[in-house]
Design goal:
By secondary structure, this protein is an alpha/beta fold. The chain contains 21 helices and 30 strands. The strands form eight sheets. A five-stranded antiparallel sheet has the order 1-17-18-20-21.
Amino acid sequence: MVATAGAQKVDENLDTFPRLLIRHGQVRPTRTAMREKDLGIWQSWTWAEVLQNARALACGLAALGFGRGDRLAIVGDNRPRLYWAMAAAQMLGGIPVPMYQDAVAEEMAFVLEDAGVRIAVVEDQEQVDKLLEIKERCATLTHILYDDARGLRHYRQPFLVGLDEVIAAGRIHDQNQPDFLDQEIAKGDGNDVAIMLYTSGTTGKPKGVCQTHRALIAAASGGCAFDGLGENDEVLSYLPMAWVGDNLFSYAEALVAGFTVNCPESGETVMNDMREIGPTFYFAPPRVFENLLTQVMIRMEDAGRIKRWLFDYFMGVARRCGAEILDKRAVPLRDRLLYALGEVLIYGPLRNVLGMSRIRVAYTAGAAIGPDLFRFYRSIGINLKQLYGQTETCAYVCLQPDGQVKLDTVGPPAPGVEIKIAEHGEILVRSPTLLKEYYRQPEATAEAIDAEGFFHTGDAGFIDSDGHLKIIDRAKDVGRLKNGAMFAPNYIENKLKFFPYIKEAVAFGHEREMVCAFINIDMGAVGNWAERRGIPYSGYVDLAGKKEVLDLIQQCVEQVNAELSADGQMAATQIHRFLVLHKELDPDDDELTRTRKVRRRFIAEKYAILVDALYGGKASQYIETEVKFEDGRRGKVAADLVIRNAKVFPQRTNDGATNR
């Protein structure tokens, strides 16, 4: 089955990001392009100022020997000058390579070596120290430029230079050679590589995805036209710059539409900064929406009895009709009046607390979002929609139109995208937004894009009767139980993670008699729950092993089983046994990717003794696990884990009857 959508035309005269930036500097020079909160105060830059700073930085990079085809690493939190460095590299025909700021030095070394990075622009001392640790291994790395000088006063390495110094030198260079940079920008072409983004490496070593200016601009233009984004919109830029989602929404779409990008003071202040800015456009992966909901539930547990009753009552109203009202569908008058009262008492104040009072459209992507979580946000009046895409497609494959949002699909193909479902169920995509190549991996490129120009996503799904795409799971992860029932672990895990007490879940079942699961508790939510009940605990390991906590998690698991029993395709994959892990799954321990995707096969191998205990009928299992601490030290965490049996339910039909 094939589905397509019409394409959005792109202005051929504005086919690179430097040309788009110059255009904004001419058309809207005094409008605010970027803001950053520093020491509690918002600093602003107009489009003209951003253009001037990017020019100076580009000329400064040129003075250091950076030129066409060279790679520029960018490491740090979202900072205006790091985005300017991206634009500066593109002005010179270079290729920015954003890297995850929380990556350990060893992970950074792989990207620096693989990409052959010439110069690295980093945020602060923490990132400088990581690069100094591995610099000798990175033969091509000639300079490290830093944004924040705090703590670096006594560093004497000659290759270590402050951005202030580079920008100052660049202004002089630009004055002395005023035609130099314009000539470099004129050499640029829409088919040049605009950025190199590394895949998360869920199943192996990360690959460098080379995306062109033309591909990213096509994705950004299509997205802006689809949702009517323009210069009056505001976005909060807080997700990793190395993630394709941030590059599309905080860079590409901002340069296409001309809206304002706001950088928070730190990761800890995102919620406060979001309330102050009031973005109109918002993007976050499901885990962020999960964490926000967890915070809401924790606050409600601490609220008084009347407030809790009001919240529970009006959330019941919202679940009943909120999403329908948002989609402007027919709703009984009584429910509409109750919802209007709930808007005053609950929904409006709640959106304000979340910083979402002005949001016109919000998107989530990066992983499947549970239908219950999705419906919660839409029911309180937040126009949350799903999109589907990958690094290789500029995060642009499917978009959900207003008024046609389904909880269990990712929408029809985005403008200009063609989708085909292969015989084995894999989703194939053909569009102007596909990658140019995997860097220095022609075999992998040829394997990913077939002779007809379709990119093989590796995801399994189908197109429903309305032309919407439904994702089942990663094609390689979809399996079968021994009884032949389809097993989609991610579907089950997302249902578990809807509960505020569950942070992560890993389901097992392929070629097994039954489904079993590992659970990670959410320390904040469960800790608050325990404190309110006077349950003492000394840390994560102690809390995770408490009988009361195991009872709480068992209730969540059995509620998921009850819901699965009503799902014709998934009823046979109810969770029979589970355990609560003694440690949080962590990217530093290689259990999650930097985008917090579960490395399921790695976990199954690492914790094979626990998997065997689940399927071997044991009531408990002792385990000792090595962990990495943030300062680089290693230690061990040990515990005797209790294994619980969960209640499973007979399959229910749509009319409520049961099949035994």
